[in-house]
Amino acid sequence: MMPRTKHAPTQHVPRRQACARVRARVVNHAHLVAGQAKHTKPPTAGFNVQPAFIGQFAGVAKVSPLFVDVIHCVRDAIVLVVYPTYVASRDIRISEVLPMPDTRVQTLLDELDVIVFPGVYDALSAKIAQRAGFPLSFISGYSVSASLIGEPDMGFLTQMEMIDRARQVCLNVNIPIIVDADTGYGNPLNVIRTVNELIVAVAAGCFLEDQVWPKKCGHMRGKRVIDREEYIDKIRAANEARGGRDFFIVSRTDALAPAGMDEAVARMHEAREAGANASFIEAPGSKEQMRTICANAPKPNVANMIEGGKTPVLPKAELADIGYQLILHPLAGLYAAAQAIEDVYSQLKANQTTLGADTALMQFEQFNGLIGVEDRYHLAERFGVKS
User: Fold this and answer.
1) Do 329 and 369 lie in a common domain?
2) Do 236 and 286 lie in a common domain?
3) What CATH number corresponds to the domain at position 171?
4) What is the longest distance spanned by two Cα atoms in the chain?
């Protein structure tokens, strides 16, 4: 008898999130294949698979919910992988063939109503956010600019640097990741490329803002915004680039400081009409302004909690009472890491040793567990690698 294979331990992922992730990969791949197959010969008329049959079977069979979700994923794969030539040859949008469910982010909002989530800046910080139990995270442009190139959030970070970082993060965690896409890095054509690249990276969404490039952190001085019509064109481009794919678009405006509340709210209404999924009026300076935003801008609204920034940092219950549903702490991890590193390095310089600093350091085995060392050993053993 063959010995039973020892598999690497796997991290538990909520069923709905796992299936949503599979569906996202299938749909994103199908968009690419369908585009490549645009001018190929369509299949013969006799080729007529009926994927609806599978869905009907799943609906009547007395099976577990997980099995039903797997069946639906298989059904979607049949429509989107077996049929790409058929779809492309008839100039049919993928969203017309397979109506997409709610995005991963919207599904979480429907389940939790109010979500507190952190900013991350690399794969390691994302793993820590996931291990802490957060259902969602955000890649902060401010943090990536600081950690990757050592520069402030003043337009130094490029499109592909951010997309590469998004890809590294999204491949290493299972929770949905929203990415700071800044201004889209140019005109609507650049926005389209940015959205497509982020979807291929399996990002769950993006923030898209209306500052003049080079942009600045929303809590810095000297911000300028583009004309409202130009910004709405960018949102329309992002929405069209997304198509029916799993991608949550947050419309962000920095118009509050240079143009006032009325203009900021008007931009949010038009952005939502153009296809955005959430509203984000950046840097209100008081609770009164925050209440005005939530009373007038379309829900859900984003609260951006920057420690030491312009907006009051408030607890979840109070922010929810004001009307916020997406509560982001984008820089808490970065600031905590920077302070911890500075403290340890200062102690090392002063004492010429790390003895006595144990409580400030994650230990060797603990850190190896975080990055999955034993998982890799188990995987290697499955393929005959001795350790």
Assistant:
1) no
2) yes
3) 3.20.20.60
4) 80
Q: Check whether residue 81 and residue 108 sit in a common domain.
A: no
- Residue 301 sits at φ, ψ, to 5 deg, of -110, 150
The percent of residues in the chain predicted with pLDDT above 70, rounded, is: 74
Cα torsion 346, 347, 348, 354: sign: negative
Residue 231 phi, psi (nearest 5)? -65, -45
Residues 223, 216 contacting (CB under 8 angstroms): yes
Element (DSSP H or E) covering residue 61: none
Q: How many domains does the chain have?
A: 3
pLDDT tens track for 220-245: 898 999 999 999 999 999 999 999 89
Pairing, β 177-180 against β 205-209? parallel
This prediction's pTM? 0.76
Task: Reduce the DSSP state of residue 320 to 3 states and report it.
Answer: helix
Is 332 found in the same domain as 248?
yes
The verdict on 189 and 53 lying in the same domain is no
Q: Are residues 150 and 87 in the same domain?
A: no
Domain that holds residue 170: 104-336
**Under 8 Å between Cβ of 214 and 257:** no
10 domain-assigned? no
Which one-letter DSSP state was computed for residue 355? T
State pLDDT tens for residues 149-187.
Answer: 999 999 999 999 999 999 999 999 999 999 999 999 999
Q: What is the pLDDT of residues 22-54, one digit of tens each?
A: 555 555 555 444 444 443 433 333 333 333 443
71 shares its domain with 189: no
CA end-to-end distance (rounded Å), the chain: 25
Residue 206 shares a structural domain with residue 279? yes
Distance of alpha carbon 247 from its chain centroid, rounded?
Answer: 8
What pLDDT does 59 receive?
Answer: 43
d(CA 179, CA 191): 13
Chain Cα centroid distance, residue 365: 30
Is residue 342 domain-resident?
A: no
The token pair that represents 44 in the structure block:
């013969």
